[in-house]
């Protein structure tokens, strides 16, 4: 079941074209991932471990402009995970609207913060993530 | 011939993991694109027109962490363009190093700022871009 | 009566020292001001006018560090207003804590967006603001 | 002798009013301070120590708007220092112009990153800073 995060577009999110700047969307997505992790117990896992998430790939399509005052609904769901990498799908819409403003695939690995090196996902984390992957995930269009 | 932009990683570019945050890379890439446009005359074109660039797609791979004090070299080059869309390839390395920290394909359309609608590239812009596409472009690995 | 806005400190808010970066606090304060304006009708006033707010002065004291996962409570209240300038006091605490993390005085003027020039506050705006100034405002310590 | 840092205003620095957002100025100031520290040896001091700088107070006046494409000149100079706190004055102008866009007083303390606590400035740091304080410093107007 995807998780939904809500936020409102403010003046400082906009750029010279008065729409949300492309880099800000990545902060919106990160906000939504932390919010999702707060709700499924993963934030606690990371706080109590020496592990961190290293984003290795983001593929983001910007489909419509988000403007001042728009209320956004960000849908976040795990799409897949193996021992080395997990993928999260995120879709941004205006609240109550079916139209997609932006959609992204975000892939991350696990790093050991004491060594800075990528490591395999611990079994408990892999299982926790697997439990959150919808059986029939909605894929962002490529 | 690709264009090179140089910047240094500062404390405010880093996040909880003490490496450059994924969203900051997009600001680095935007900085490098404006810098490139300043040098090839496109910035002037945009300043004197009612056109703006709307990013429609970014595909970015984060390969190695950038850390406090790292001096970065961002290589920017047009990869392709047609009447509706242009693609820019950007590669971030530490200055003097062959290793890639991040590489991205950035696609944009042209919008008319008075209507907010996507429009076809004017012939002069299409030609100006075509003149800047290397005959044998280095593609980011997928 | 001061208005309260709540947000959570995320990984991308932190910098090399792993506390919230000084510039991010200003985004938190702007977020809280828009949120306040949404609740007291001023956001609507600005959306329906050609006026914008130009910040002319910020005096901010950083008293304690905000860290990953901290839940913040931002208190926002008008402190004074005359025909040319209004002042807003904002105080950031951890939710439920009496300790102040940061406190700021934010002064703004009104600009006419068509001319870019500062203008006097329209009477209706001056009155709307005056109605929101507590009779006995808590001043940030200097 | 004040230190000068140069940067150009880009599309992502602007906000809904198409001038540089108030929070961005603080990133410009931080950029200039790191740049200054790179040139006077202080950056090396911080990299080789367990000390960090904690900003405790910023007093910033925004006097004129900075717009897309503006080339900025940021002047940075130590104003005072004692065993507990140092103050840096920073002034932002358009390059070649006498007019001030923004000016700030930035005060910081030293923290021990292993304990997170404020500490007294080591004598060598206090002396290094004192050597950089102009005998007749230009003060930002209050």
UniProtKB/TrEMBL annotation, chains A, B, C, D:
CDD domains: 4HBT (cd00586). Signal peptide: none annotated. Gene3D superfamilies: Hotdog Thioesterase. The keyword Hydrolase applies. The keyword Transcription regulation does not apply. It comes from the Bacteria. GO terms for molecular function: fatty acyl-CoA hydrolase activity. Keywords: Hydrolase. InterPro entries: 4-hydroxybenzoyl-CoA_TE, HotDog_dom_sf, YbgC/YbaW. Coiled coil: none annotated. Pfam families: 4HBT_2 (PF13279). Belongs to the 4-hydroxybenzoyl-CoA thioesterase family. This is Acyl-CoA thioesterase. It comes from Eikenella exigua.
């Amino acid at each position: 079941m995807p998780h939904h995060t809500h936020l409102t577009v403010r003046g400082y999110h906009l750029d010279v074209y008065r729409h949300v700047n492309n880099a800000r969307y990545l902060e919106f997505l990160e906000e939504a991932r932390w919010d999702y992790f707060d709700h499924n117990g993963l934030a606690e896992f990371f706080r109590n471990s020496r592990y961190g998430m290293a984003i290795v790939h983001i593929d983001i399509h910007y489909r419509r402009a988000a403007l001042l005052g728009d209320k956004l609904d960000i849908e976040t769901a795990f799409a897949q995970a193996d021992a080395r990498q997990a993928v999260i799908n995120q879709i941004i819409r205006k609240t109550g609207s079916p139209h997609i403003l932006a959609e992204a695939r975000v892939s991350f690995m696990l790093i050991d913060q004491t060594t800075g090196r990528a490591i395999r996902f611990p079994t408990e984390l892999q299982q926790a993530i697997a439990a959150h992957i919808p059986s029939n995930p909605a894929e962002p269009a490529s």
